[in-house]
Design brief:
about 140 residues; mainly alpha; 4 helices; about 0% strand
């Protein structure tokens, strides 16, 4: 699965799970000005925006060079988490959605993004290492 598809699907799935938890647990406050769906959508939106920024950063840093991919993955992952957290805090303090619903959905979205990113990174790093090992193990000048 391409990273972009996984990182855009994970917040949607996390949002659905968060909405289900909030509804089943009766967490959403009656006094909240946001509906549970709006609250969960805001949490998922934080991760979608962070995913797009992280993907752009991965592309810029790696420049499609195999040796730069590990560094790009590490930097983009940290930036993605930082941007999502900043967005989440901004939404929480400025718009004041229901905290329990928001943070449950936010953390579920983040966890799923991390799982997708880790699985993708392991696959890519295995391929990069295999191609680099193959390139360096070939005999040079031997006939």
């Amino acid at each position: 699965m391409p990273l972009i598809a996984g990182l855009l699907a994970a917040p949607f799935v996390g949002g659905v799970l968060g909405l289900g938890l909030a509804t089943a647990g009766g967490w959403h406050s009656v006094t909240s000005s946001w509906t549970p769906l709006q609250t969960v959508a805001a949490a998922a939106g934080c991760w979608i925006m962070a995913a797009l920024i992280g993907l752009l950063l991965t592309s810029i840093i790696s420049k499609c060079e195999a040796r730069k991919i590990p560094t790009a993955i590490l930097v983009a992952s940290a930036v993605r988490a930082g941007v999502a957290l900043f967005d989440g805090l901004f939404v929480m303090f400025i718009y004041k959605p229901d905290p329990k619903t928001f943070w449950a959905a936010f953390l579920l979205c983040g966890l799923l993004c991390l799982v997708i990113e880790t699985a993708w990174a392991m696959l890519v790093l295995r391929r990069v290492n295999a191609s680099l090992e193959h390139r360096h193990s070939a005999p040079v000048g031997v006939s």
